[in-house]
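Late entry, written up from scratch paper. The run itself happened at the end of the previous shift, but nothing got recorded in the book at the time, so transcribing now.
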Amino acid sequence: MRARFTWLFPLLKSMPLPRLFATGVLIGVVWYSRYHIFFWDTISQASVRSHWFYEQGLRTLFLPPALDSGHPPLFNWYLAAGWSVFGRSLLTSHLLMLPFVCIVAWQLSRLIDYTRPTRPSTRWLALVPLSDTTLIAQSSLVSTDMAMLACTLTALNALLRAQQRWLTLALIPLGLLSLRGLPAAAALALFGWFFWHFSANEEQHPSLRQLFWPFFLAACVWTTWYVAHYLHVGWWLSTPNPRWTEHRHLTGLAGIMWNAGITAWRLIDYGRIGYWLILLIWLLSHSRGTSLQWWLRQPLPLFAMCFLLVHAIAMWPMSNPITHRYFLPILVVMPLWVAQLLWQHSSKRWGRIGLVWLLALLLSGHYWVYPRGIAQGWDGTTAHWPWYELRTQMLAYIQDQGINWHEIGTRFPNAGPFDKLDLSDRKEGIPLVDWTQHRYVFYSNVMNDFSDEELAHLDTLPRLHQLQKGAICVVLYQIK
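Output as recorded:
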């Protein structure tokens, strides 16, 4: 057995220890969550849509109207192909995420190799973003956003090094994984122009033609898909499906201000306020020594600003909910850059104190849970992890009590056939709650769809069974 993997040992030995550690952390998260059911948006975006292609034997490029929200289905095709080869199961689904988490760890390490100062010890600063709860939570899910993050970081590194081939290879799938891949590509283009136009390394400047061709080739591939999709279904971005139509409306000024506030909340949530405060303190103390030219030569904050600017233009006028995972590229590059600021521009003592404080706040984000009634982005935090075990225990209790599934009502992300959650081929499941028909309610605080009035009504009902682990609770209520 050892002889089979002798080729692996020289490769591992040649890898820098921080890169090896980062890769091991993310692989460990995938392995830990290998039997977690599909959760939150991965139910529709990964499980249900991929199952359609799997059932069709990968003989079509398009989703049926009931499942089509306009997103290109490259990730669904990838999952369906993996199921066809290795079997349709939760284990297969999570293991298919390994290439993406390895790419993320590798590209994160390459980022710090490009931006770090000369001291080798600063390579360990690449581990600071691994403390972010959204990055770890998304690594534990079968998530399109992790695939998008892998492409985005690869493209960012390719832009920094003027590598046309890698830039093209990263951009093409980025625009075919999600509609949000197009704004991400636009942010990369804007960053590339600013950075190379104002970079101090003038002898290394690529020409505009060098930057243009990868984006042009990728845009040709994207256009081919969207034209084919239009010819097949007859619409571009504004889907006629009522399930998603409400998320594609233009909002007025009040809606734009609301989305701006939600964006700010997402960026400081889960302990991230720590590195924004450090950055604010640094700006106040170094404001005289930092010019606009200096900022345009800092690749990580420049990319974050370009990403946020394009996001604001594309997303703030829309009614689509804004979640933590939309900002994964910012959540990776900003703590890395702030950690570098602490290390480079502080004394050794204060730099270490600042890093410890930053890490402590980011790690505390894994335990941030808001009071009931405040909608929380549960797929953006590892605090939701006890849900899987508690749900299994509650389902076992229901079966032991002889309660029929059709007598129980619940809400997203627990409603519907079991098969779409756990790939068990069980067509029965728990329907959406109907207060006039159901005798029981399956409730958990990971469910954001219960209104304040419904939550108040639940408090008046008897509790047949209650389970609690960490910050997550699961309760079976009996309707009088």
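Strands lie at 408-409, 416-417, 429-430, 440-444, 463-469, 472-478.
(Scratch paper discarded after transcription.)
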